[in-house]
């Protein structure tokens, strides 16, 4: 069986056909423009391949993932122009005539990492992406995190020392929330240049401070067995090491677990699937949707 | 069947015999002194009743709840004098010859509320207590939150505006973490009097601010369907209403759910079981331990 996966980002969509990271037969990447055009390009790509058993979408959000909701499968209140209230699942399902699985981009990536990557064997863990924005998802007790809607790690409030960092924050909703202080957009607004052009160690010490503060909150609420950290900003060499050191300091040994002290190098890690975690996880969402449509349980 | 439940707090232990909130046949409360004396009083109480099928303990912590760990059933690194590394489960099990269920005090209260109280029918929710300290637990995907160890809501970092509140915080590990700023101890240290003697509206506006900031982080990470708020500090009239209003403002409508806007009165609620949530939840832990010991699944 082969499946179609979509990592539906706010900047670009990545579509792939295959059944896992070892078998990605074809992939395509294109910019996120209007919903009609973007979803159209995805359906064009998938219709060229016969025999797909299902489609999976890991989407930017916020999205509606409540299966009993009339707007299940939609992007909801996104500030991204033209995309609010776009029913992604219905559009794809109607165009392709296939079952469609749908979840957040970060839950899809978490699923990919749990099946094939850095979270194999774990039942409670997080996947956090720090790129243009910040998102977080994962599993608790072996199932993807949903609850009320789905997590929105980016919009936690974290301490903001305005003496050290007078920047007001970049989030249009909350100003200096976690995303407002630590996302790629925050770096660009605060320093006037994108992260990849910033080399001052003070820039990255501050970035590590915010990421560590956010992850401390994640540790204290979700108690994950591991945090997988992806996204463009985290490709900065040594950033992970700065984050681990600062997290360990901030936690001060209160939670007595080697994972948070001596073994913290294996606690905060890069995605084993790299940039493909999202689209590969979307293929796993497709597989689950196909099995569900057949009335069978995922194997 | 009847069971014994213990709400093992750092200040007092509450022991009860029964099979739920409608049938608490006998309860006793005594101060937490030394482990030997305190556990001894509990075993004395339970040995007077024949026919108990199991004991459940909802304990202050941090505790070891990893079933495969050699120190499962112990209180671990608590700063409470004499209690670090106390093997509560073994002591009770040996003295009483009964199966013992063990979890955090807040997970026990969450379990009680889910079976009989304010969380019936929910699968992802939180129980937070604000008393001497701050603790949080709950369920994700229908099972109690454990993960790496167990949540420690009290030790999140939240924004601390030192102009408005120059208090350094009361946590011996982290200073101005959530518990360091918003617990009963924090109130007492900051204002020089315990919470129940404080009437200045500014005191409670600041308290509501911190609680709302902490709960925003919980909403953004765990995405609970409801937050149940217990503990001595939260008995202040109107505090819940202040917290709800401030949470709604802080979230700014970003997460489009009526539970976080118009219906927030039903989202942040007091425990339906009141002060008995913990001990009644411990009875449910006992029931589960007894069924597990019999090799049967909980019904």
Oligomer: homodimer
Give me the secondary-structure category of chain A: alpha/beta
- As a whole number of angstroms, the C-alpha radius of gyration of chain A is 19 Å
Give the N-to-C terminal Cα separation of chain A. Answer: 13 Å
User: How much of the residues of chain A is beta strand, in percent?
Assistant: 15-25%
| pLDDT < 50 stretches of chain A | none
> What about the largest sheet of chain A?
5 strands, mixed
Measured as a percent range, the helix fraction of chain A is: 25-40%
Average pLDDT level of chain A: 96
What is the tally of helical segments of chain A? 8
Shape of chain A: globular
Largest interface: A-B, 50 and 50 residues
Report on the architecture of this protein.
The structure is a homodimer of 299-residue chains. Chain A is 33% helix and 21% strand. The first copy, chain A, has 299 residues and is an alpha/beta fold. In chain A, the strands form three sheets. Chain A has a five-stranded mixed beta sheet with strand order 3-2-1-4-7, sandwiched between helices. A five-stranded mixed beta sheet of chain A has the order 10-9-8-11-12, with helices on both faces. Chain A has a two-stranded antiparallel sheet with strand order 5-6. In chain A, α1 (35-47) runs parallel beside α2 (88-96), α3 packs across α8 and α6 (201-222) packs across α7 (239-251). The two termini of chain A are 13 Å apart. At the A-B interface, α6 of A face α6 of B.
């Amino acid at each position: 069986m082969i499946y179609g996966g979509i990592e539906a980002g706010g900047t670009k969509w990545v579509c792939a056909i295959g059944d896992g990271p070892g078998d990605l037969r074809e992939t395509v990447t294109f910019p996120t423009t209007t919903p009609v055009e973007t979803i159209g390009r995805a359906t064009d790509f998938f219709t060229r391949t016969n025999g797909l058993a299902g489609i999976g979408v890991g989407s930017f959000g916020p999205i509606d993932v409540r299966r009993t909701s009339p707007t299940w499968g939609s992007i909801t209140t996104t500030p991204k122009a033209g995309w609010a209230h776009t029913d992604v699942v219905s559009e794809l399902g109607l165009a392709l005539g296939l079952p469609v699985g749908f979840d957040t981009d970060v839950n899809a990536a978490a699923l990919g990492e749990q099946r094939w990557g850095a979270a194999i064997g774990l039942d409670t863990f997080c996947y956090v992406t720090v790129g243009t924005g910040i998102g977080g998802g994962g599993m608790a007790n072996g199932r993807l995190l949903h609850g009320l809607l789905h997590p929105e790690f980016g919009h936690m409030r974290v301490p903001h020392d305005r003496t050290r960092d007078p920047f007001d924050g970049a989030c249009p909703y909350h100003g200096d929330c976690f995303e407002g202080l630590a996302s790629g957009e925050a770096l660009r607004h605060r320093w006037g240049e994108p992260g990849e052009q910033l080399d001052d160690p003070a820039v990255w010490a501050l970035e590590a401070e915010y990421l560590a503060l956010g992850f401390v909150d994640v540790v204290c609420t979700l108690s994950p067995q591991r945090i997988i950290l992806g996204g463009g900003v985290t490709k900065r060499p040594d950033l992970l090491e700065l984050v681990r050191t600062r997290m360990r300091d901030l936690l001060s040994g209160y939670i007595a677990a080697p994972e948070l002290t001596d073994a913290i190098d294996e606690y905060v890690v890069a995605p084993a699937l790299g940039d493909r975690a999202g689209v590969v996880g979307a293929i796993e969402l497709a597989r689950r949707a196909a099995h569900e449509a057949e009335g069978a349980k995922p194997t």
